[in-house]
Amino acid sequence: MAKNDRKKKKTTPRKNPAHAQQERRRRINEWMDLVGRMCEACGAGDLFGSLTESERSYFEAARVPPIQLRKAAGHEIPAEVFSRLDSLFRNTIQKDVVHVPPSKKLIGLGEFLRAEAALRGIYIYSLTSTKDRAARWVERLEPFKSFVDDKDAHVMSPMMKLWTLMSYYGALCGDMKRMVFPVRLQWETQTKELSRMFQYFEISSMPAEHRVFQLGQQKRRSYRLLVQSVVALKVYPAELSTKVIPGLEDQPERRLPVYVQEHVRLRMNERLDPLAEDEMDHLLGDTMTSPKTVPLRGGAFLIELQMYHCLLGYVVAEVVNDGGGNAGEAVLMRTFLFVTQSGTPEGDRFNERLKVGNYEKSYFRLDRLAPFMTTDLCLDPVFQGILRECGIGDLIEVVKINRQIRSSLETREGNAEDIRNLLNIDAPSPGDTPPGSRSGSGRDSTSAPAPSPRRFRILRRGHRRPLNAFVRRPWIPKPLPAPTPPPPPVPSFPGPRRRAFVPLNARRRLRYKCPQHRSLDDRHHGQERP
Q1: Is residue 461 part of a domain?
Q2: 311 in the same domain as 351
Q3: Which pLDDT value is given to residue 464?
Q4: Of 336, 362, 389, which residue constitutes the final position of a domain?
């Protein structure tokens, strides 16, 4: 036999059957300890402490592995996406806790979801029995069964909460321009018993759908809007009913596909700066949950964009011809407007209230979310009243919720006072009486109306023509005039050495009147003037 044909000696040590049995018993003991803590939290600790042989065998056989995150078969998931989702999933099930009813004891989320199927199975098995012990199991586990079945109107079940969170994480990891990653809850079972049902999350992929629209002489590239709903817990292509599109309400109802230009996300990243770029696709998809529209000129319309059920801005859209689609028409989203920008109903009222225009709002950065989120604008009582007066009170709630969630946000104090001083916005005091109204003594105030504040014009850089809108500023006293300098000394009449500067007529008169000023030529010839 050749040397290379010899069998290689195995280097892995053989498993000792006794050690394997000990390991199996150790894992069963850990599992039974977890089930015991769950039964104690549910109020069935006395029943678990006196288990019968059949009940003990049932619980030992109901042992399942921890909940997992898997890749769907036939779907290509990028390694970095799956690694990020798996890291978020493991951190959630390890750090989150559950208040188990009715005792409200704390148990880890991963442990609760692992033992949930075993207690659900013993509850269903006890419903079919007529023994007194089975009735006690049903009575003790009734609050637990209602809790895991999501029948409580105030508290979401742990599995639904985790599924919602994983759907949100999947929406953040995806990109509607390239690919999105839906997350589904699946289950498998090896036997017909409910206690052996094993639940897991499955991540799949959905590629993007691109389309080019011809608008006049220009081509607009876009992609299909996908709704990544954390309420329906699924991902589906967006469609907008003609019943909510201005100008098409009277027509028979149709469902038009919705497409998005990349310009929309660019403007959202710019004007919603403190928010992460991963959240923009999720916010765009939420506009289709319960769409609200506002008509514009030229056939375009606005679609409300909300965050935490609060108005954050509008998406400008229009109906375009879609020759390659089944409906023949489609809704194309063109750009995004923040709620304080001109062109929105609230933004126009904001302009009238502050007496400002687009350039002034851009100068003070009032046309984006960043100053409201990172400064004290939404904490200032005067600005709060102005925002609510203009219909932008939802912005205060959005900022409040985001500051609770995002602890890294810092608030710069004094910005609201600076803007109020520059725009001459006075804080109203309770004792002030407006001109023309009746005072507290019952007399008519016949004083003249208050003079309008002074205004200064802000010029565009590189232009001489000022804007139509003005910005008001406080009155600044003029500086005192500087002392008048003494007048310069008067120069004397030039002497004989500077005779060239004397006019010719004056020199001639001097020659005839003063003999000493005669020229040398006249003296030499001895001639005298008549």
Answers
A1: yes
A2: no
A3: 42
A4: 336
